[in-house]
Specification:
The complex is a heterodimer of chains A (181) and B (680). Chain A is α+β, with helices and mostly antiparallel strands and 181 residues long. Helix content of chain A is 53%, strand content 14%. Classes of the chains: A alpha+beta (181), B alpha/beta (680).
Chain lengths: 181, 680
């Protein structure tokens, strides 16, 4: 897992729950918390931190991940504004994941494992999105989608008829974006 | 003291201080965090730049490898086109090439998802843009990349509807450059709005130069092949390409039942005269114009080529019946009917056409030879017409081949004979000369000169035959000189052909023949036609001058039929002019013929040339040529060519034909004068 993910998680936790909670999560997970965006760290560290947050904050793990995704998006927008400024709505932004955003990720982090997305754009009202990743972090993607909607002033409704966490081969999300405000 | 402090809890008064310390530490922590993030950003930027640079290098390497390994323009560029498209994540890439008309032409080389964008690809098919028109046209005009995106930029483009329908919203087009010249362009399309990427543009500029070299190199190679397979003057396919085309066509014909291939052999009538009169530059212009006219009347599937000189070939493939052949032959003739204007003057040019139809078994070369033979038949039958190669023609060719083979052995078999025709002094009636005329007596029949002299010329056999003629004529001359019954032996006229004059051994041969018989060179009159100096004036004149230096006389035979102007006469080292029999034949009927002959006589006299009338057949012709002031006459009226024995008997009579001349003659002074001029 790339260090940036840990940095964003720390930033999100500190912003919403304070420094002490982050310290507590590290203590509970027995981690030293030294993460830099330039490094890569074990996936288990992230899952341990998510697990600790679920127990400390008394929420479900996938809710933690979803919340984390939603909170990360504005932080991404802050770091990489040029990826967002080309678009006027979330749908068109999301559609550049495979061709622009992930290639950019690979530029920074050679060998980064990024999820694969498949898009179904046959209907203008909703966007079909297939998600596949061995990390099965579809909830993170969901949170990012909601965050993207917020970035462009849209409400996002996601229906997930298939999920890897429920034993499907890949996750399927049918996404509706409200009109931009 | 410190121990005391350290053991005691903080006093309340110290709390603000502690708070300040915590604040400071938090500020430090924030600073450290920001510093870390700043360091990460710098590092990320460097990483990204390095990555982009590396990818750029990889791309350029791909392009360079494709450029070096490719065997053609399109394969080389197809590989690079896809590499560039993938590198920049564009939807579509497309190649345009500049053509000879300086327009950008759409190719079928695409990269990307062409299935999804099939309508757009279709809309681009067959397009050509002049400078300034469309993306490629703008690149052609400015030699620079063009980057355009929705909505304003793309609106003005010729394909904007197709682009909108394909949801393509950004277009990039950059030139393939060979030096400063735009030789092609690559265009790319994206389905989102993208801002110009300077790094990408810099990369494209390098790729454009690499690929421009490929185009240039390939074009140079194509130009070489074109040069080797096309005629430089007209740009038409040459013999090499025509033979190749025929080979393929005949191979196809052998597979496709009922389809035939036809070859036209087109040879201009009288082209040589125009070339000789106006010079090669005008001749070349005429050939170009002829090529243009011929190409306008053939069908688009036919091929016109030039074999060289004034010989053109047309190949018609996949014919199912002969109608198009006749139609094309007619149209070819009609196309030349309008006069050609050269150097401000109008000229009429016709063509003799031979047509050969392949029956499926011919070699390409043989088919052209058949068409050539049919063309010769057209010439024989009066020019400005067409003839098909036929079984009869095949037999004629076979006959000719048989004749050629026999002619090769004619000397050794002793089948050649010389006959002699008297040349008569028109003042005294005395035989002053004889012209040696070649006869071929084959065991089965006498072959006329018309049948075999041309063949001897074409095959080069004229050289050994000519040597034999010279030797035999000089032998006969010596025999007459030693004949006590002959008071004054005549001079001997011997014809030399153009082919003999270009024989480098001619001078030694003549010298040897004269020495062998101890003959007086002044008794030998070598006759050449005007065409000798028309083909290569300087070379012809220098050989004649050398012959003159040997002491022989030079005569111009058949004068008036060639195209030499009278001014040529001045440079000719000749002492005798023989006016062609066609003028003599017309003298009684055609006052224009008479005017021409008068001019020739006047001119010849002023140059001190002796003038001979050939082909005198009637008393009226004799009267007129004497009135016009001819010195010497020759023709059936006096004597037909005869054997040495027959002519020897005539030579015994000093004024053999005096009775024919009547009262006008008998001017001994004039006659003595003319003999002196000849002996000069």
């Amino acid at each position: 897992m790339k260090g940036i993910v840990f940095n964003l998680l720390e930033q999100s936790v500190v912003a919403d729950h304070g420094e002490d909670v982050w310290e507590e999560l590290l203590d509970v997970s027995c981690l030293d918390g030294v993460y830099t965006s330039l490094g890569s760290y074990p996936d288990e560290d992230l899952f341990a931190l998510v697990g600790a947050a679920a127990s400390v904050l008394e929420v479900r793990s996938d809710d933690v991940v979803r919340w984390f995704g939603q909170r990360s998006l504005p932080l991404f927008a802050e770091r990489y504004p040029q990826l967002f400024s080309r678009h006027v709505d979330a749908r068109s932004f999301v559609l550049t994941l495979n061709e622009i955003i992930h290639p950019e990720v690979r530029k920074l982090y050679p060998g980064a494992i990024v999820p694969e997305f498949g898009f179904d754009t046959s209907d203008a009202d909703w966007l079909g999105m297939d998600y596949y990743s061995p990390r099965k972090l579809c909830a993170f993607a969901e949170g990012l989608l909601i965050g993207a909607g917020e970035h462009y002033g849209q409400t996002v409704t996601i229906d997930q008829p298939q999920c890897m966490n429920r034993g499907d081969r890949e996750c399927r999300m049918n996404i509706r974006f409200s009109r931009t405000r | 003291m410190s121990d005391e402090y350290s053991l005691q809890p903080y006093a309340l008064t110290e709390l603000p201080e502690i708070q300040a310390r915590v604040d400071r530490l938090e500020r430090q922590l924030r600073r450290q965090r920001l510093a870390r993030q700043e360091a990460e950003r710098i590092s990320e930027r460097a990483t990204r730049e390095l990555y982009d640079k590396q990818q750029g290098l990889v791309l350029l390497e791909t392009v360079a490898t494709a450029a070096n390994e490719a065997t053609g323009i399109e394969p080389a560029i197809a590989t690079s086109l896809e590499a560039i498209r993938a590198h920049a994540s564009w939807r579509l890439g497309h190649l345009w090439l500049r053509d000879r008309a300086d327009e950008m032409v759409s190719t079928d080389v695409w990269a990307g998802d062409t299935d999804r964008h099939a309508p757009f690809c279709e809309a681009s098919r067959g397009l050509r843009f002049g400078p300034g028109v469309g993306l490629p046209g703008r690149v052609l005009k400015d030699g620079r990349a063009v980057w355009m995106s929705d909505p304003a930029g793309l609106m003005s483009l010729p394909r904007d509807d197709a682009m909108r329908a394909a949801q393509l919203r950004t277009a990039l087009c950059f030139p393939l450059l060979a030096g400063p010249d735009v030789v092609g362009a690559l265009e790319f399309f994206a389905d989102s709005v993208l801002e110009p990427d300077l790094e990408l543009l810099a990369l494209m500029s390098q790729a454009g130069t690499q690929l421009g070299r490929v185009v240039e190199r390939q074009r140079a190679a194509e130009a070489l092949v074109h040069q080797a397979t096309h005629d430089a003057l007209t740009g038409l396919p040459n013999r090499v390409l025509i033979l190749d085309l025929l080979k393929r066509s005949l191979a196809r014909q052998s597979r496709a039942d009922g389809e035939r291939t036809a070859v036209f052999f087109v040879d201009l009538d009288g082209f040589k005269a125009i070339n000789d009169t106006l010079g090669h530059a005008a001749g070349d212009r005429l050939l170009s114009e002829v090529a243009a006219r011929l190409s306008r009347v053939i069908r688009c599937e036919d091929t016109l080529g030039r074999l060289g000189g004034d010989e053109f070939v047309i190949v018609c493939e996949a014919l199912t019946d002969e109608y198009p052949v006749v139609m094309i032959a007619d149209r070819l003739g009609v196309s030349l009917r309008e006069p050609f204007t050269l150097d401000g003057e109008q000229f009429l040019v016709s063509a003799s056409i031979g047509i050969a139809l392949a029956d499926g078994s011919e070699e390409p070369g043989a088919l052209i030879e058949q068409a050539d033979a049919a063309m010769y038949r057209s010439k024989e039958l009066g020019r400005a017409r067409y003839e098909f190669f036929s079984d009869a023609l095949r037999e004629r060719i076979a006959h000719r081949l048989e004749l050629e083979s026999a002619l090769r052995h004619a000397i050794a078999r002793g089948e050649l004979r010389l006959h002699y025709q008297p040349e008569v002094d028109l003042h005294t009636g005395a035989i002053v000369g004889v012209e040696a005329l070649l006869r071929w007596q084959r065991p089965e029949a006498l072959v006329t000169p018309g049948e075999f002299i041309g063949l001897a010329e074409d095959t080069g056999l004229i050289v050994p035959i000519g040597t034999w003629v010279l030797t035999e004529a000089l032998r006969q001359l010596a025999a007459w000189e030693n004949d006590a019954a002959i008071a004054t032996s005549p001079w001997m006229s011997v014809n030399l052909s153009v082919r003999q004059l270009s024989d480098p051994e001619l001078i030694p041969r003549v010298t040897a023949a004269l020495e062998h018989r101890c003959a007086d060179p002044a008794r030998l009159l070598l006759e050449v036609t005007e065409s000798v100096v028309l083909d290569d004036a300087e070379a012809g004149l220098s050989v004649l001058t050398a012959l003159r230096c040997l002491g022989t006389e030079i005569g111009i035979d058949d004068f008036g039929t060639g195209y030499a102007s009278l001014s040529y006469l001045r440079r000719f080292p000749a002492s005798v002019v023989k006016v062609d029999r066609s003028f003599i034949a017309e003298l009684g009927n055609d006052h224009r013929a008479r005017a021409i002959v008068e001019a020739i006589v006047t001119m010849s006299r002023s140059l001190g040339l002796k003038i001979v009338a050939e082909g005198i057949e009637t008393a009226q012709q004799l009267r007129i040529v004497r009135e016009l002031g001819f010195d010497i006459g020759q023709g059936y009226l006096f004597a037909r060519p005869g054997s040495a024995a027959d002519i020897g008997r005539l030579l015994g009579n000093a004024t053999a034909f005096g009775s024919l001349l009547g009262p006008v003659a008998r001017d001994e002074t004039e006659s003595a004068h003319s003999r002196a001029a000849l002996a000069r």
